[in-house]
Amino acid sequence: MKTTISQVNKFVGQEVTIGAWLANKRSSGKIAFLQLRDGTGFIQGVVVKSDVDEGVFQTAKSLSQESSMYVTGKVQEDSRSPFGFELLVTNVEVIQEAVDYPITPKEHGTEFLMDNRHLWLRSRRQHAVMKIRNEIIRATYEFFNENGFVKVDPPILTGSSPEGTTELFKTKYFEEDAFLSQSGQLYMEAAAMALGKVFSFGPTFRAEKSKTRRHLIEFWMIEPEMAFYEFEDSLKVQEEYVAHIVQSVLKNCSLELERLGRDTSKLEKITVPFPRISYDDAIKFLHEQGFEDIEWGDDFGAPHETAIADHFDKPVFITHYPTKIKPFYMQPAPDRDDVVLCADMIAPEGYGEIIGGSERIHDFELMKKQIEKHNLPLEAYNWYLDLSKYGSVPHSGFGLGLERTVAWISGVEHVRETIPFPRLLNRLYP
Questions:
Q1: Does residue 428 fall inside a structural domain?
Q2: What does the pLDDT read at residue 160?
Q3: Hey, which of 156, 327, 373, 385 has its CA 20 to 30 A from 307?
Q4: What domain count does the chain have?
Q5: Are 134 and 273 in the same domain?
Q6: Strand, coil or helix: what is 119?
Q7: Which candidate, 211, 252, 267, places its Cα nearest to that of 405?
Q8: What phi and psi values does residue 224 have, to the nearest 5 degrees?
Q9: What is the pLDDT of residue 165?
Q10: Residues 316 and 282 in one domain
Q11: Host domain of residue 239
């Protein structure tokens, strides 16, 4: 019976065949222990010399790291293993013997591992992070599908930008200038006017020359937009969504979290509602904490966000930022024209902003005024202006950065480990 490692629990006491790679091995004179992986998981294969042909035992002892094979054996429970099962091997059929695999069990430097990212992905740690990433994606679709959202795919090549063109990659679109999208938001607003509640999930690009552990040049965003949803309505969706994906990872990725050494007690606290602090109060709080460098009207840096987040044990909303530091499309607060109805969600444990969202302007004259005030080319935004001209309604939306969210939930320090092939300031290889 051919199966996978993740399915061996269905075949306890039976003989199965698994296509696998050798992650590691150790052996004595009479027993060889093979650490096997097949993409679905890891399992130990035990080869007992007295129970197999001499040729099988010698093959098992001589296998090199990352050699590929078909392994046949009997599935048995093993309480010492985190996985709970092991394979009592009866036969090994080598497909290809790997020679001088570059990533050994010893420590390697970051640059070396990044140069060999195509191989580093095979490690237990990276496997665990990618499985958690996949679970967050699965739970994302589950949440929005169950809550009546429609998946819409905005274009990656655009002629304009939601937030100006200073941090965009410029390219040629035949005879026109075009940009790689930094957000699908404007298009998602159009889709919301047609379909009510929508979400997108796709790659976005930021040409900012940042080297911090929170930044990637290419990353993935989940961007919902909701017609007839005002500011408070949107905050409720955001906290319910984040709580959902955290609980889904706790439920379905316990082995991966354990492999990464993640303190799951911190994740178990992530339940709705989330705390909130206004920008005004955040400035006062930071001053009390000794941050004299920050003034009202400044945007928060990583140390400021971390100081605020450390005051809570859940993600925290920072709301009502100054108008002058936020994009043109955000709805002014009804009682103040110097702040907008927006919120950033800051993850605990120093992982920074994972969501930015706001209520959007739906008044035509105000939207036109804002576009002109920000010196954006009106002709490029005529189609967007149409949304506030023909049947406009209050609407809100937000964007969640997938990689920062994966980093936070999995507990890894740098976002470069949370995407299969990271694009960083000085890295376009492999």
A1: no
A2: 73
A3: 327
A4: 2
A5: yes
A6: helix
A7: 267
A8: -85, 150
A9: 57
A10: yes
A11: 118-417
